[in-house]
Write a structure and sequence with these properties.
single chain, about 400 residues, alpha+beta, Bifunctional nuclease domain, 12 helices, globular
């Protein structure tokens, strides 16, 4: 089949076709990761920034004015997140000595942004450098010069199908290269799968974990068989609040509602309610939420971040569902934490309060002896602990 254009995939994604967005992810994730890695220099940070970029892009897809420019828009999101990360994690001051030539930017531009933009372009050129000459020429015009496929065909005097073919092969080459070098971080691209059934979840408990500068809330959500639990968390920075004592009045309240409380009050004021919340898989282990509202004018579903949806869930507690495949990947087996449900929930609560990083899912890596380097361990290592009493094949774990 002929490869769909970005504009076609964006149009389908806007029409609530998650598979179309997954196709866009598979098309641009590898280069986005390469660009982020060049910007921040740390593999895991780059991976997290790309994941956040993809989620931002999906949730704000309606703001994209030109569907054909999805690629540039996504890379702009990656660039901005990398800039923000670098500002929060400053390293050695950037030198502008080598940037004085070919200064095409106005004097009012931010010098650091100029350097970062050029670093971004250099990262693209470096990535393209691994491709074969024919694919390299097409990729350079597409990624660096931002030409359309038709403009590239006219420029190189080749057919439009040849441009699409070379660009497709170039992406495959780049993905294969990155998969070899950064196998610990980049999982192989997953083909779009059919939508699975949803599971109804039930709230067992909300656990508050207090820390110096922020507090976290963990939700113990059980499936209907009450054999597995999903334990998402939300962190909120503590802000010192200063309140002026006002004279008592009938219409005065002592508590100021937070953002989520205010949002819920507005929904109720408009005679609406939250009908249900559904947690779904966007791509691999990247989750998002659908919040379904019911009002005087009918039913409306909006997409949201999982933590935002869960904050509303805590306040309203509507029915909550989760994609079955995502739940199977994210959940833990209660049987590992005690004999009775009371013991299991008490053990989990204590783990959350003392050492939440010890909570682990069933997605244990197969490579227990590290014979394939760190493959499969990068998403697991924070939950692993050393146990010198247990051995496998005669070796300490």
């Amino acid at each position: 089949m002929e490869e769909e254009t970005d504009a076609q995939l964006v149009a389908r994604a806007r029409a609530d076709d998650a598979h179309a967005f997954r196709s866009l992810v598979e098309r641009y994730q590898s280069l986005a990761f390469y660009l982020a890695l060049r910007m921040v220099g740390q593999e895991e940070v780059a991976h997290d920034l790309v994941q956040e970029s993809l989620l931002q892009a999906y949730l704000s897809l309606d703001r994209l004015r030109d569907d054909a420019r999805f690629k540039s828009w996504l890379y702009g999101i990656v660039l901005n997140l990398c800039r923000n990360w670098r500002r929060l994690h400053p390293t050695n001051p950037l030198s502008l000595d080598h940037e004085t030539t070919s200064f095409e930017h106005p004097l009012s531009a931010d010098p650091q942004e100029i350097v970062e933009e050029r670093e971004l372009k250099q990262a693209v050129r470096s990535a393209i450098g691994i491709l074969t000459p024919k694919n390299q020429a097409v990729a350079f015009l597409f990624y660096c010069e931002d030409l359309s496929m038709q403009e590239i065909a006219n420029s190189l005097a080749i057919s439009l199908s040849a441009v699409k073919n070379r660009l497709h092969k170039g992406r495959q080459q780049l993905q294969a290269y990155l998969q070899t070098v950064y196998a610990d971080i980049l999982a192989p691209a997953q083909s779009s799968r059919t939508k699975t059934t949803r599971l109804r979840l039930h709230l067992a408990k909300v656990i508050h974990r207090q820390q110096t500068f922020y507090e976290s809330r963990y939700l113990l959500l059980l499936n209907e068989q009450q054999q597995h639990a999903w334990i998402p968390y939300m962190s909120d920075f503590k802000q010192q609040s200063f309140r002026m004592d006002l004279p008592a009045h009938q219409e005065t309240t002592s508590a100021v509602p937070g953002t989520n409380e205010l949002l819920l009050q507005m929904i109720h004021a408009l005679e609406g309610r939250i009908e249900e919340i559904s947690i779904e898989e966007l791509y691999e282990d990247l989750l998002y939420a659908r919040v379904t509202l019911r009002g005087k004018n009918g039913r409306r579903t909006v997409k949201a971040r999982v933590d935002d949806a869960l904050r509303l869930f805590i306040l309203e507690q509507p029915p909550i569902f989760m994609d079955a495949a995502a739940f199977a990947y994210q959940s833990i087996a209660l049987a590992d934490y005690g004999q009775t449900q009371e013991q299991q929930l008490a053990t989990l609560e204590q783990l959350v309060l003392d050492s939440p990083y010890l909570l682990h899912t069933d997605r244990r890596p197969d490579n227990l002896d590290f014979r394939q380097d760190m493959r499969g361990w990068m998403a697991y290592h924070a939950r692993a602990t050393l146990d010198t009493q247990v051995t496998r094949s005669g070796k300490p774990t």
